[in-house]
């Protein structure tokens, strides 16, 4: 599976707030698929299949779960965003919650690790946290505690996978993300707000250490961001949440305008947008 160019209609009024459902669909239909090469590389390396019982933290709208389930894995996804979780249920459960021709659940979608602990058929043997860290201040603060709460639900020696942005010089999207930091800082907000920062070499290792995990290998994966046009690119990028502080500090219309301007170097002759990126993953054991 590779990133797909997706075309969307423009917002009717750029100054109007975007409802949570539209934002979640922008993530699911435009942005989430950009990380599909990362999911597939990890699953291939770990030989994910019918014997895999996976718990995925911050599962979003479920694409990583869907790919694992297509390989035969039993999957449980955790996400606190009700809109994204609803889309994951549509994808994985199809309104029935059952696999075709089977009485067993194909997947479970819950809003907390505590809920994932209830009524699970067997301990998990793979934990994943695919939401990339390493490009915003404080974006890993909640990850170590979440991992620590999930580890007791897994068998001893379980594999844990963390994901993060690669070096800024290998990520064409990095200069676009800097827009968020610049707008946030220029507003001189009275309270600290998360802004872009360059990924550091040991971001993932630091989280693993705080969660009591032992690193056991790593890898890098090319994940180009491809969009049908600038409008789709803006919507996809804003759906990540990485520009939320900038929107609060200024307004959405300004953020959209400046993100669109930052995308011009990546605009191709046919109107599409293409940004090569590298993401990193760390394999650990409990």
Mean pLDDT level = 87
- Count of β-strands: 9
Classify the secondary structure makeup into a structural class: alpha/beta
Percent of residues in beta strands: 15-25%
Measured between the Cα atoms of the first and last residue, the distance is: 30 Å
Order of helices and strands: HHEHEHEHEHEHHEEHHHEE
Counted by DSSP, the helix tally is 11
Query: Main beta sheet: strand number and arrangement?
Result: 7 strands, mixed
Helix percent band: 25-40%
Layout of SSEs?
Blueprint: H1 20-31, H2 36-46, E1 53-57, H3 63-70, E2 74-78, H4 82-93, E3 107-110, H5 113-117, E4 124-133, H6 143-150, E5 154-165, H7 174-187, H8 203-210, E6 214-222, E7 225-227, H9 230-238, H10 244-249, H11 252-262, E8 273-275, E9 278-285
Parallel strand pairs: 1-2, 1-4, 2-3, 4-5
Antiparallel strand pairs: 5-9, 6-9, 7-8
What characteristics describe this protein?
7-stranded mixed β-sheet; two-stranded antiparallel sheet; 286 residues; single chain; alpha/beta; disordered N terminus
């Amino acid at each position: 599976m590779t990133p797909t160019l997706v075309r969307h209609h423009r917002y009717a009024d750029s100054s109007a707030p975007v409802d949570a459902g539209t934002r979640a669909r922008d993530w699911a239909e435009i942005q989430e698929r950009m990380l599909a090469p990362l999911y597939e590389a990890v699953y291939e390396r770990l030989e994910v299949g019918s014997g895999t019982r996976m718990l995925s933290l911050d599962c979003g709208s479920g694409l990583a779960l869907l790919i694992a389930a297509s390989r035969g894995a039993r999957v449980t996804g955790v996400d606190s965003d009700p809109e994204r979780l609803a889309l994951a249920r549509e994808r994985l459960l199809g309104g029935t919650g059952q696999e075709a021709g089977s009485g067993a659940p194909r997947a479970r979608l819950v809003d907390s690790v505590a809920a994932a602990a209830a009524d699970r058929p067997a301990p998990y043997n793979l934990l994943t946290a695919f939401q990339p860290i390493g490009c915003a201040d404080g974006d890993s603060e909640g990850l170590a505690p979440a991992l620590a709460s999930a580890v007791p639900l897994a068998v001893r020696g379980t594999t844990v996978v963390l994901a993060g942005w690669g070096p800024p010089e290998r990520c064409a999207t990095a200069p676009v993300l800097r827009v968020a930091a610049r707008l946030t800082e220029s507003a001189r907000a009275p309270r600290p707000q998360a802004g872009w920062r360059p990924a550091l070499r040991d971001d993932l290792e630091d989280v693993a250490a705080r969660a009591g995990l032992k690193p056991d290998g790593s890898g890098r994966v090319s994940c180009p961001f491809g969009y049908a046009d600038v409008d789709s690119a803006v919507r996809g990028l804003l759906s990540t949440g990485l520009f939320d502080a900038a929107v609060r500090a200024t307004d959405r219309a300004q953020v959209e305008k400046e993100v669109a301007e930052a995308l011009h170097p990546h605009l191709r002759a046919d109107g599409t947008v293409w940004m090569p990126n590298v993401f990193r993953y760390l394999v650990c054991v409990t």
